[in-house]
Specification:
The strands form three sheets. Strands 4-10-9-8-7-5-6 form a seven-stranded mixed beta sheet, sandwiched between helices. The protein has two domains: 35-65 and 346-456, Aspartate Aminotransferase, domain 1 (Alpha-Beta Complex); 71-344, Aspartate Aminotransferase, domain 2 (3-Layer(aba) Sandwich). The chain has 17 helices and 15 strands. It has helices spanning 8-18, 26-32, 58-61, 70-82, 95-107, 121-138, 159-164, 168-172, 189-192, 199-217, 243-253, 275-279, 306-315, 329-344, 347-367, 402-413, 435-456, and strands at residues 37-41, 44-47, 52-55, 112-118, 146-150, 181-184, 222-227, 257-261, 285-288, 300-305, 373-379, 382-387, 416-417, 419-421, 424-427. The protein is α/β, with parallel strands linked by helices. Helix 6 (121-138) packs across helix 13. Bound molecules: 4'-deoxy-4'-aminopyridoxal-5'-phosphate. Keywords: Aminotransferase, Pyridoxal phosphate, Transferase.
Length: 458
């Protein structure tokens, strides 16, 4: 049975009858009708009606090598024929997770050499939470259990992921969150800096709110701090340069582990393999997923630093945790082939030296001056455009994010897929974008902003 035998309307009806989508108002979706994406190639996706869209989100922050990579399909096919699955429980493994672990240790920041696999970012954050608590128990400090996170953080949608995250709406539906998680301030200068406060001072103040949380809980009770180097789903919130060094200092001072969530920033997005390297952070754990396979297979990898790994290995004792698909041989084969493409094509250097700087220049020149744009910010190939009613006062349009949805809908109608989160438009394109793809995106977004402004000021 192939989908080509179905009309869009039929697919939408069946979708409405049987399919509950993630992060969706199910009533609203049924009224609007699902957009069905049927194929993709390079930087473009195509819907069932043949419309071509430039994919400004790399799927969902993941398709870093772009679409249509036959090498990845072939790696999966070859592995499936040879050995589709075997587990890595009871003293077994298969070759591809073994080799992938060595590769990850080679590209990871210094002092990070062990890997624990899952199938999603959420799962790997569950692993990270369990592992840091296990570590402190092994160290004879079982009271060190509290994790400090931040408001607006996104760490996944499992119960632990949502508890670690700082999304108020998610917490409202969580019932009982995982105990022992507290939230400090987000490093979001656009909304939270004080009048006249410098970027530097704001960054230090935001980091000190983490210190306050540690002191309030009692440092002897705090296991770790967790943070995305750049908050992604929360709106591409890029912290000032003063933020991470201060966080690092605070973690060291109180002997609090540093957990980085690089599910979005990992594997090239900021112009280095990991943002830890581009931003000079020395983490104890790094959660990664998404671009590890460029989304061609579900796979996540928690990278574990020497401090935790040596305790876990030397002290021994079983870590009662793991997934059927931890180290899935097919997903790991695809990851190996994906990392090879990133390396062979120099995609990371390209982001660092060429397309990243050009992306910033282009968005700044073309969009920052627009009447409804309050700020444009970028790092590597990720960017945010703040939508405001008043550029000077940063007053937002009424409707809590409704204005950004208007921009998004015009963008999509003009061949540009980008995402709205709150009042922020976000971009996270495949790393294969060239200068001309960036120009194309800037043109389409500029047009969408013009059309949206006309609607919004009516
Ligand atoms: N952490 C971060 C920073 C993420 O952006 C995401 C997903 N967007 C997750 C964790 C959860 O990953 P997954 O959806 O694969 O569970």
């Amino acid at each position: 049975m192939t989908y080509q035998n179905f009309s869009l309307k039929q697919l939408q009806e069946i979708d409405g009858a049987h399919h509950l989508h993630p992060f969706t108002d199910h009533k609203d979706l049924r009224a609007a009708g699902t957009r069905i994406i049927t194929r993709a190639d390079g930087p473009f996706i195509y819907d069932s009606e043949g419309n071509e869209l430039l994919d400004g989100m790399a799927g969902l922050w993941c398709v870093n090598v772009g679409y249509g990579r036959h090498e990845l399909a072939e790696a999966a096919y070859a592995q499936m024929k040879e050995l589709p699955y075997y587990n890595s429980f009871f003293r077994c493994s298969t070759p591809t997770p073994v080799l992938l672990s060595r590769k990850l240790a080679e590209i990871a920041p210094a002092g990070v050499k062990q890997v624990f696999y899952g199938s999603s970012g959420s799962e790997s954050n569950d692993t990270a939470l369990r592992l840091v608590r296990h570590y402190w128990a092994l160290e004879g400090k079982p009271e060190k259990t509290i994790i400090v996170s931040r408001r607006s953080a996104y760490h996944g949608s499992t119960v632990a992921g949502a508890s670690l995250g700082g999304m108020a709406a998610m917490h409202s539906q969580l019932g009982a969150p995982v105990p022992g998680i507290v939230h400090a301030m987000a490093p979001y200068a656009f909304e939270l800096s004080l009048p006249g406060e410098s970027e530097h001072d704001f960054g230090v103040r935001a980091a000190r709110s983490v210190e306050d949380a540690i002191l309030e809980a009692g440092p002897q009770n705090v296991a770790a701090f967790i943070g995305e180097p750049v908050m992604g789903a929360g709106g591409v919130k890029i912290p000032p340069a003063s933020y991470w060094p201060e966080i690092q200092r605070i973690c060291r001072k109180y002997d609090v582990l540093l957990m980085l969530d690089e599910v979005i920033t990992g594997y090239g997005r900021t112009g280095a393999w990991f943002a830890a390297q581009s931003m000079g952070i020395e983490p104890d754990t790094i959660t990664t997923a998404k671009a590890l396979t460029s989304g061609y297979q579900p796979l996540s990898a928690l990278l574990v630093g020497d401090r935790i790994a040596s305790t876990v290995i030397e002290k021994g004792g079983e870590f009662y945790h793991g997934y059927t698909y931890s180290g899935h041989p097919v997903a790991c084969a695809v990851a190996l082939a994906n990392l090879e493409i990133i390396e062979k094509e120099g995609l990371i250097e390209r982001v660092r030296d060429d397309t990243g700087p050009y992306f910033r220049k282009s968005l700044m020149e073309r969009l920052a001056g627009h009447g409804i744009v309050g700020e444009v910010r970028t790092i590597g190939l990720m960017g945010a455009i703040e939508i405001v009613k008043d550029k000077e006062t940063r007053e937002r349009f009424p409707g809590d994010g409704a204005a950004a949805v208007v921009v998004r809908d015009h963008a999509i109608a003009n061949g540009m897929m980008l995402r709205a989160t709150g009042d922020t438009m976000i971009l996270s394109p495949p790393l294969i974008w060239t200068r001309s793809t960036i120009d194309m995106a800037a043109d389409r977004i500029a047009k969408a902003l013009d059309l949206a402004e006309a609607d919004l000021r009516k």
